[in-house]
Input
Amino acid sequence: MSGDTQNAWIRGDLIIEAQTLEEAEAEAVRCYPNEACGFLIGPASETPSVNECVNEVNEADKYHALDPEHFPRTAKTYFKINELRAARAFEAGAKAGRPIKVIYHSHCDAGAHFSGEDSATFASAGTLMWPCSFLVISVVGGKVVDKKLWAHTPGTDDFHEARFTTR
Output
């Protein structure tokens, strides 16, 4: 999937509307000290364009409460999007011509790095789980201090920082 030219946004180099980025940042601040998460969407016909934010529920605490052995982390240090709901959202967005181009999440009192946990969640055996890039928003002390876009490195389970601009 990483080499997919149809979903070129997986490589980054995106233009995220300022209001869309502000909505994701506001959700990250609202959820602090827990991690926020959601999708950034844009028209398929305009590959780099991202102009809609859809917030999702971080289900990390729910999974931790049900099975702390297999889900030892809580929403303070981990995010978990409902995979069935995400799969349906990716499918619906593709059909509507408004695909999910980015999954965003926040890191609380930590940098905007793509963690080992993030990599293990979204890539396996060199294959990307979802056809998108990933935005990490760093919230420290309840304020956004940084944000970075991450893209999958094809053929690996690694991610690299990718370029994005706002307009």
In short: The domain at 8-75+82-101+115-128+139-166 is CATH 3.40.140 (Cytidine Deaminase; domain 2). The chain has one domain: 8-75+82-101+115-128+139-166. The first helix runs from residue 18 to 31. The mean pLDDT is 95.
